[in-house]
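batch_manifest entry 22 of 60
target: Methylase
source organism: Streptomyces capitiformicae
requested by: lab member K.T.
priority: normal
notes from requester: please return tokens only, no post-processing; we will run our own comparison against the previous entry in this batch. if the run fails, retry once and flag.
--- input ---
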Amino acid sequence: MAKPVGTVTRGTTNPNRLRRMDRWIAASHGPELRRTPAPLAVDLGYGAAPWTALELLHRLRATAPRTQVIGVEIDPARVAAAKPYECEGLTFRHGGFEVPVPGRPALIRAANVLRQYDEEEVTAVWQRLCARLQPATPHTSGGLLVEGTCDEIGRRHVWVALGPEGPRTITFATRLGSLERPSDLAERLPKALIHRNIPGEPVHAFLRDFDRAWAAAAPYASYGARQRWIRTVRDLSVDWPVRDGVTRWRQGEVTVEWESLAPRR
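--- output ---
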């Protein structure tokens, strides 16, 4: 067998750490999974414990019951430790960015995997993973790669969604009760943007405007943090290409077109 592509991560994991990402995937990609006869989802780099893969299976099957999940880890000891947790619809394999699974996945989730890599390596990894996705057809948008970073207990999370053609959107998600200002999410920017939060870069301007809109929406705090967030995102959408609507915003999310925040070269 060829050597897996990549390096071993810290492996930090906690139950429910990726719930915000999973909720968004189920809502945004659920219809695509249901249209796929035998949808395969990959939890790439699930870490030292199999909890996130088990949770992904349960959350996706709630919206697409035929979904199968394969957890892929580059550390063979972690694969061996996860094997006892295999069940109907869930298996574990040794591998890395080559994604050694049969066929083309409808979903690859890579959470907290690229944080340790250099920024210059991100594009090549994205391209490699996107090439493994289920291709788009005249009636489908193809598979989805979701890559991002969150804190240890999943309160703050930022992820990029990519299709076979490349990056599509970036989503900021948070537990609203723990948020002082939207720019607090900057510490969880994915590797492609974490070093770009500086004057002159789009992501810096976005977070600046996000904070200003949050401050302007302060009177709505009397109705709760959720109402303040919704008002903030509504105002932010005047100048930025915000996706979705109140149904997603009230979850403590905001999704923006990737091109509007992409790094300037």
